[in-house]
Amino acid sequence: MAKPQRIEVSESANISVVRFIDQKIIDPVAIQELGQELFDLVEKDERRKIVLNFRNVEFLSSAALGKLITFEKKAKRIGAELILTNISPEIFQVFAITNLDKLFKIKDSEADALAVL
Amino acid sequence: MAASHSSAERTLHASLPSNLADYHAFIQTVLEQLRELNWEKEPLFGVHLALEEAISNAIRHGNKEDASKRVEVECRLAPNRFWSRVCDEGAGFKPDEVPDCCRDDRLEVIGGRGLALIRAYMTRVQYNDRGNCLTMEKLLGDPATNGACGCQ
User: Fold this and answer.
1) Prediction pTM value
2) ipTM for the complex?
3) How many contacts, defined by CB atoms under 8 Å, are there between A and B?
């Protein structure tokens, strides 16, 4: 995989922990790049257990939510497990308003996610 | 961008190009002015998201990113009130026909969430008959959004 620009990936056992680099996920080019880097994790690098850590994310648009939904569908189709963590109250509210707290598995912390993957 | 101040209300107006890269500075100006009016982080988040979704919808779905078309945005800012009108040059749409993203069988559908977010964070949201002008208003002190699904 080419060096990612929108995410940082670290490995813990066989689990990939992804942190977002951008604090605000709004720009359409950045969202496109972010999506491709996430898709590559499951499609090229064959990662099967992924934690998305939102600690750094202060703001995201519905376009970013759309990309996350596409990623979730790809991961599910391939058989990869996905857990979202460290979502701020403001961002969690965005997930709740759009009902995405039902679609995604969400845990409070990375440790909580690592314990169940 | 045009701006005017009165003691009670500030008005900002912008004629934005139909380009998804070129409207963020305007939104930041609105947010900075609301901060000067002592708006706090939580309602500012809602205004940010509602403006982001309204303008990007107008560019993407209304004007279909046609470089010959503009998006006209007017914002009125006061210590306890945010009001905005966002108009595009598209054919318009019927907001009631936007699919309900709250339905469990539509959780994986990509689109339709921007309007749900606008409705959730604003006190009042209204479209004109043609469906190409959105008017929205946020009153500080209204019942805060409770995190319930805001789709319909």
Assistant:
1) 0.91
2) 0.90
3) 67
